């Protein structure tokens, strides 16, 4: 027998390895790729601009936004709602006018029907005298019922897609839940005081820390925002210090469960932190 290698082309069976290799080389089919650390945003970046926040705010669900970016988003959605509402009101007004025109047309048709009936009675009386009547399809106002395709004013109207009443609620672009400006909480970062690090803030690898435990914050460290003050602390600080007597460790004010907002992290590359670490690249399918 001849020796068979893994890439044997004389075999009668098209193996899975050969199929996968050919699919990767040909540019067809769906290709799965594991996302790395560089494919996810940092914990202090805006969810819209994907850049470090200059004036950070956080939603009730823990998503971080730049204040300017999220306000522009809310204003654009409200402007879009106003535009759609005007179109909807214009459509409703047009429907009311059409209903009124139909009622007037029906009234006019009943009047013409009555007049025709009266004319028929008088026509029977005058039939002996030899009077003739017109049989044209344009008589008695029937020319208005026939569409004229060479006169623009008499063209039949095309049916326009009916618009639905727009929803005035603004939804979060990430979580899809209702979003209001009053629910945004200003975030206060605690800078890392390292006199040896002369780099700019954006270029630093370790930028912020927990104001209580002084732990360096990052994608691998679960964090939470205290709603009353906006300070960002680690979840370890929340579990071991804050939840003991529910007092703010910096200001001493009383806290509640709703005052702790877990901050959504960008990702670390580990499956424990992220729900899905695979990306799919949809390509044309090669049919046999």
UniProtKB/TrEMBL annotation:
Residues 4-78 form the Nitric oxide synthase-interacting protein zinc-finger domain. Residues 71-112 form a coiled coil. CDD domains: RING-Ubox1_NOSIP, RING-Ubox2_NOSIP. GO terms for molecular function: ubiquitin protein ligase activity. It comes from the Eukaryota. GO terms for cellular component: cytoplasm; nucleus. The keyword Coiled coil applies. Pfam families: zf-NOSIP. Keywords: Coiled coil, Cytoplasm, Nucleus. It is found in: Cytoplasm; Nucleus. Belongs to the NOSIP family. This is Nitric oxide synthase-interacting protein homolog. It comes from Danaus chrysippus.
